[in-house]
Amino acid sequence: MKAHGKVLSIIMGTTMLLSSFAFLSGCKQNTTDRQIKANSTWYDSNTVKCQDAHKDERWMVSNYDYVFAFDDKVYTVFTGIPYVNPEDIMSYDFSTVVDEVQAYDLDGNLLSTSSISAELNGGNYYYCYATKEGITFLCNGFDPELGNIKEYILNYNVADNSFSKPQDIPFDINGVSADGMVVSGLDKIVVLSNGALLGSIYTTSGSNVSYMFQVVENGKVVKKVDFKADFNKIIYDFASFVEDDKGNLIAVARTTDGIVKYTMNVGSYDVTEEVVGSASDMSSFIKANDGKAYNIDNAGINVLNNKTLQRERALSFSDCNVNLYDMSNLKVLDVKNDRYILAGATKEASGIDNRSVFMISTLTKAK
Length: 367
Known about the structure:
By secondary structure, the protein is mainly beta. Helix content is 7%, strand content 50%. The strands form six sheets. Strands 6, 7, 8, 9 and 10 form a five-stranded antiparallel β-sheet that branches. A four-stranded antiparallel β-sheet has the order 1-25-24-23. A four-stranded antiparallel β-sheet has the order 2-3-4-5.
């Protein structure tokens, strides 16, 4: 099942400690004694370690899988596998996995926790994405009526921290594609600039794996793009989904022909392709609440110019007092009024306790 892969990938990740960064602290950094010249750019920083919702637990695995920002609050999806016996490293039990939504204010205070596990009835979630109202989870679980695994959607509303009832996935994830590839499951959902949903869907045939795009409007599939049949491409995965200056979707794919950029017109949903060789300027960018895509490197925050599709420096870390190791683990969530909200997690393993620490950083342009 997909969820097993999610848990196993987390387990593998916790075994790799970044010892080379051990000398860098993760302390709160709110002030600086640097003198600011009148014509210089400076950002005040507030980087905090967030309140731990499970401070007394010891973890075989703990991870903050996804981060989102809504109305000056930060939401993260926490996954953890606790030790049944804190003194025995073999005493973990997958049935005790903790999956929950945690909400924080910008000072790192825990506002609420909402159990996803309690809503899944023994199933699993394997991906989630942000909507205007909150977070949508893609889930799967055994359906006794079907006698098989069923995929479904759970919606989490940030206004009241509530989950909807399970809903059917609006995509066609069964059957055979035009060239005989088996449609075998939903990978991701992307909200297009016009509000339609795009589903990135696995297709398989023997050892060949590729993808199909399906576009859903008002609960109905209105367009299918089969990359094996339409472009004769075996696609290994999609590195990123960003938008150009017209709101069209740019999907960067790793294929048998190298890195390929696919552009989907949001009016017709027609797709064109271009072999670009390297996706270094697009592959690590993540869309923030302002509609632009950002990434972070060791020198600062970059924004993707949605017209030229080239990276541009949005903020230099030389213009603020931050810990570079902390910044390397964060993602840009929200940008507005000369303020950046970032969040993410670092590892603080101690003995057998593989603990992740959730952090929020607010960078505000000084007056």
